[in-house]
Structure prediction request, 1046 residues.
Amino acid sequence: MIQLFNVIKNYGSGKPALDDVSIKIEKGEFVFLTGPSGAGKTTILKILFGWEHYEEGQVLVQGINVGRLDAGNIHTLRRSMGVIFQDYKLLPNKTVFENVAFAQEVTNRDRKKIKFKTWEALKNVGLTPKKDSFPAQLSGGEQQRVAIARAMVNTPPIILADEPTGNLDQEISSEILKLFEEINRNGATIVFATHSQEILKPGKHRVIVLNRGKVVSS
Amino acid sequence: MIQLFNVIKNYGSGKPALDDVSIKIEKGEFVFLTGPSGAGKTTILKILFGWEHYEEGQVLVQGINVGRLDAGNIHTLRRSMGVIFQDYKLLPNKTVFENVAFAQEVTNRDRKKIKFKTWEALKNVGLTPKKDSFPAQLSGGEQQRVAIARAMVNTPPIILADEPTGNLDQEISSEILKLFEEINRNGATIVFATHSQEILKPGKHRVIVLNRGKVVSS
Amino acid sequence: MNSATQTLLTSLRTTVSNIRANKQTFLISVMTIAISVGILGLFLIIFFNLNALLTSWNQQVQLVVYLKNDISPSEKSDLKDIFKSNSKIQSMEEVSKEKAWEEFKLTQKNSVGLELDLGFNPLPDSYKIRFKASENRSRHISEFAGQLQKNRGVESVEYGEKWIDRFEKFMIFCQLFLLGVGVLLSLGLILIISNTIRLSIYSRQDEIELMLLIGATPSFVKIPFIFEGILQGLAGSFVSLGFMGAVYSYLKTEFRPSIDSLARGMELQFISQPFLLMLVGLSILIGFVASYISTYQYMQVLNKR
Amino acid sequence: MNSATQTLLTSLRTTVSNIRANKQTFLISVMTIAISVGILGLFLIIFFNLNALLTSWNQQVQLVVYLKNDISPSEKSDLKDIFKSNSKIQSMEEVSKEKAWEEFKLTQKNSVGLELDLGFNPLPDSYKIRFKASENRSRHISEFAGQLQKNRGVESVEYGEKWIDRFEKFMIFCQLFLLGVGVLLSLGLILIISNTIRLSIYSRQDEIELMLLIGATPSFVKIPFIFEGILQGLAGSFVSLGFMGAVYSYLKTEFRPSIDSLARGMELQFISQPFLLMLVGLSILIGFVASYISTYQYMQVLNKR
Ligand SMILES: Nc1ncnc2c1ncn2[C@@H]1O[C@H](COP(=O)(O)OP(=O)(O)OP(=O)(O)O)[C@@H](O)[C@H]1O
Ligand SMILES: Nc1ncnc2c1ncn2[C@@H]1O[C@H](COP(=O)(O)OP(=O)(O)OP(=O)(O)O)[C@@H](O)[C@H]1O
Ligand SMILES: [Mg+2]
Ligand SMILES: [Mg+2]
Prediction:
């Protein structure tokens, strides 16, 4: 369960990036987060995984008060999440396979399963042929899929996806969407930030619309 | 005028990224380049501005044989182009304003005009309020718009845009598209790689479809 | 396998793959450490050999006590008792006036080239006394000499030669100066090494950021960097000690004749074992501290957001 | 304003904004250069002062020519002619046998404490000759001495004292050794500096790549980096020369008494002006070469694609 109560986030200058945002997302829900460029979508996700502080309000994730976490224990929160970053954040010195495996090593998973699970995640996003390539040797869409695979590989209870299909064509996009829906069916909560009307159109899931840091519709 | 004759590009392992591609784009044309992830769109653009070599074929850009250029004179080609990179390639240590101004400094433009032209380009993409921010302080869509402004600021005769609206909402996307069309009306040739059906739908411009390194329709 | 060893193993694996992925920066750091340790090592070699030379020359300092011609046997044995009761005296040699005169004539003949033959002996009996090597030996000698001078049976006391005194001053000056230089040198090189390590970590900020973002504990992030720093220190010091070993044995064979002529019996010294260990330890410590501080600082910056 | 000055101005502006944007790496490079130049400078100071000391002690080397008692006036003037024709002789002093005997008796009295009074003078007349300072003076002296020895009017020849000979050997050994150490030191520090600059450019590969992609000429990319390298060299050497100046004046006042006792009249030397300029020039050169090579290499890598 994810809850934001009257959250205000101000990056310093100008208007706040989030202005009194309250959102409630149930466990196992699939929610789209949308809104124009600069609306605050990424900011909400960053707050949810403890990457940005906020000035006012409360944020609860699975009963954890995110504002109370510090450098020493924030990893407990982050381990319950798979995050797809808008700019991917792949390690340039590691291959596709190593990038995905690394997400498991970081969380001290069982070594023997790492190989198998990496392989499976890469198959899901259709990247097995590219497993030994470095990120710089991939197309934009391929890089994005590595980021998706990395977020899913630990089968976390929550997935935060920031514009995960921005560089993917319609066909792959809808496959990826199906993948998210399957994970969702298996119990994961999914927060999916997107601009794409094509993805939002079917209207199967709740859509939270942001504009200039405020929730416009939910 | 841009021409590719039977170009083959092989990154080394596996199938070639471009397999016998021939494309002809007239001066002043507006062309969409589309195709699934990994089709070779970025590769074509990279070849056009001399960032990747190709194994076979010929590439002519404004009468220049691209394959003949070397490190000493490739800048003459690149100065005739504005490029929007799929991953933006903004300099993290420079502000938005400096990033856009830098593109003019690099090409030794008249100092006095730089300020004015930078200001104008930022206004076109709606980023004047963010001019003193650093790239890390921008949302994904804002970064993308900085990249667009930088490509346009020198009013080059050719614009290569690689997925320039992937992180922009529909409204801004269509504004940006209008901007490209205006530039095109003023005489610039535009090659616009995109996945977005919404952008392609109106059907006002020629669409080149790539798949697995081959031109499927043109 | 418990969790701690598991973490350790993972960290080691991560360290190895990090090094492989950043070969160039790793090698640059190792090279910088190697050069720095090499400079410090050479400095130590110079310092120790200068010390050894000083000690070997210092051995030659002796005290000559000339006796009055009319010294009584009891005064003579009193004097011997004084010598015996001084624990710092190494050896004592009695030189009769006849022997002294022979020697004197010989040196005169050798140096000036003329034979003295006076028909009588103007020199007195004397004692030649050597002292054990110790910190403040020369001060002790001059004090002891002052004491003897007052003794009734003693005609005069002569110790050292002017050049030894002067040379000793020079050596002490050198030692002090080199000590100061050594401290400055060490500080400077430590700064250089930690800057290099800092720069190499600087270029991997994104990696640190990502690790934290995907749920790594702070120690999981730090430990591989720290291991890497330690490894750099270890590798750097080993490379340079190897090189210095080579330089040492080259100098030893090459310069043996000149060393022998400077101080017979003195060996050209390498860095003594404790200092060798100290150098290795120091460079490991610097690698450790520099990488620890750099990652720690950068993580602080990240956490402040 | 023509195109070249325009380019230069733009490059300078770019350099300044680059430095501002990468303060930390710039300062680290400057610090590394400053430390390295400081080490080299201290080394030069040691080297020069050792040399000065050697020269000052060497002044005391003199040749004493003892004449036969039965030397004829023509032989004596022949000898004087030989002295006059030798251009390396600085001064010549005639010492009568009477004066020599007085001096000898005085030193005997001072050192051994006994008065010689033989009633006759066993010493001959002599000449004391001092030589001009030159590279191979002591070899020249010994050759000249060998020559004189064969002269009929000469009883014997004495030059130097044993300790000077030995000390000179030690000094030459020191000089050679320090020269070797200095070469190693310079090479090591040059490597360290160029590695640091390389690392700092390494962390700016993306910038280089982007500049080329948006149409910069290779020289437009290189020049600001090279300017930066030169500035680092300049700043680094100035910082360290300032620091060394301070150390120098401290040492000069602090150690004046001991220096005076070592070699009267010798001044503690700072790095001489040509070497000062050389150090500044060297560090600028290293900054230039290292940044040039690093950018060049990286651009080669980029162009190969
Ligand atoms: N680190 C930061 N410092 C200052 N301002 C920031 C920072 N990050 C984001 N902002 C500003 O906060 C606002 C919201 O940004 P955010 O990234 O949340 O937008 P977004 O909804 O994700 O937009 P997009 O769809 O373009 O990615 C923007 O105006 C942005 O400029
Ligand atoms: N530097 C490289 N080294 C090796 N392979 C590469 C390199 N760059 C691209 N490729 C491969 O070439 C193919 C075409 O890549 P390209 O970037 O042109 O695709 P794209 O059409 O731009 O895809 P996307 O829409 O995902 O950006 C891909 O399979 C990619 O993995
Ligand atoms: Mg965003
Ligand atoms: Mg692409």
Remarks:
- Residues A 139-140; B 41-42, 86, 162 surround magnesium ion (ligand 4) (CB under 6 Å).
- Residues 1-80+161-218 of chain B form a domain with the Rossmann fold fold (CATH 3.40.50.300).
- The two ends of chain B are 16 Å apart (CA to CA).
- The longest strand of chain B covers residues 2-9.
